[in-house]
Design goal:
This protein has about 240 residues and is of the alpha+beta class. It has a domain at about 90-245: Muramoyl-pentapeptide Carboxypeptidase, domain 2, CATH 3.30.1380. The chain is built from five helices and eight strands, in the order ααβββααββαβββ. The chain has helices spanning about 5-15, 45-60, 110-120, 135-145, 180-190, and strands at about 65-70, 85-90, 95-100, 150-155, 170-175, 195-200, 205-210, 215-220. It has an eight-stranded mixed β-sheet with strand order 1-8-6-7-5-4-2-3. β2 and β3 (about 95-100) form a beta hairpin. α1 packs across α4.
Length: about 240
Amino acid sequence: MTRFGSLALAMTLVSGAPALAFAQPDSEDSGDETPGVGADGAASGSAAKRHDSAKQSRRHKNKVVGQVVPDSQLRATPLPLPSGHVRLFGLASKEEADLDIFNDDGSFDVDELHQADHMLRCKRTDTEKPIDPRLIVLLSHVYDHFGKRLEIVSGYRNQRKQTSFHFKGSASDIRIDGVPPKKIVQFASTLDTGGMGIGLYPRARFVHIDVRPAPSYRWIDNARPNPNSPDKRPPRGWKRKKLQS
């Protein structure tokens, strides 16, 4: 299969594939740090219990909660065609693009997909990678529904952790101005016929959407924003940009 096959074939791929592997959540600002609570040797037993309770509460707050999506919760009917239009804004690059990814005959527009590659390039190294067209199709659905540009928190990541769907070019973290992340998750979930990852990041205020081998996966990550997490380091030899958001 080539990257620029017919629209019918592309939509078949969006519908999912047989189960190949189980994949963990994958995001931009997920942090691994769990805030701790200092112990006071002179504290009373009740105070110590309060410390323990606060510590457990903070750990729970930062815990990633996720699950495989059962078939009964997937979309049962074929996904309709999106308009193919999607407006993207890179939060790091401050660049904007209006894309129309389909030709009149339903095939992918090669030049528009190259523009999508550029918009979703690695914000740490400025390197580009072909983005999975199925992801852009999903983003077009999201744009059609909300009618507002999608703000790209992260797309392709040129990083050492090569199991990431961001590294594979099949994931994007997005925001929509004025739209609560939960609403984005709710709509994106209606697009899932199998083979999607959707993550909610309440504290970082973005939504992760990816295409992956079945099964589909959902998660909520309450970690504090950490765009400079060590697991997102570029390959050796690259100088990583320090990110502010």
